[in-house]
Structure to design on (152 residues):
């Protein structure tokens, strides 16, 4: 009975943490994206000519990518912590493989996060819905992996 309650509390705290990260990422993305009006032509950054612009790249896709990517980062950190804790208990070689997998996925989520891209001085543009689709698929896979990890 006590283990079941601890699992429910752990799952609830995980959901609350994911929601908080998603809300913070959305707030950050909305404040940053307000500098570019929706559906307005935006000039490409040099070396392109200043008269060259791109129409129809909705910022909502990049806001969604920021939220999804930040949630993915949170999920990977939770998974990594769980796998390290599991390795301390079992010393299993399979768990070492899971740790390496989680570390590689952590690197992916860090470098694909628009917050990191923005802090590095770059701006994404021209991808449309394809800006967020890879992160949505990763979110689905991470959600299943986290659910199975926390369940068993």
């Amino acid at each position: 009975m006590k283990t079941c309650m601890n699992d429910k509390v752990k799952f609830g705290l995980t959901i609350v943490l994911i929601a908080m990260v998603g809300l913070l990422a959305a707030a950050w993305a909305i404040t940053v994206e307000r500098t570019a009006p929706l559906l307005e032509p935006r000039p490409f950054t040099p070396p392109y000519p200043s008269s060259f612009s791109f129409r129809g790249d909705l910022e909502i896709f990049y806001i969604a990518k920021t939220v999804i990517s930040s949630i993915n980062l949170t999920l990977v950190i939770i998974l990594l912590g769980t796998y390290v804790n599991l390795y301390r208990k079992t010393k299993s070689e399979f768990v070492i493989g899971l740790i390496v997998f989680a570390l590689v996925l952590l690197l992916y989520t860090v470098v694909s996060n628009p917050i990191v891209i923005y802090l590095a001085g770059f701006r994404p543009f021209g991808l449309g819905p394809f800006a967020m689709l890879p992160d949505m698929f990763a979110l689905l896979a991470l959600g299943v992996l986290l659910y199975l990890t926390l369940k068993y």
Observations:
- The radius of gyration is 19 Å.
- Helices lie at 2-33, 59-90, 93-112, 114-119, 133-151.
- The chain has one domain: 2-151.
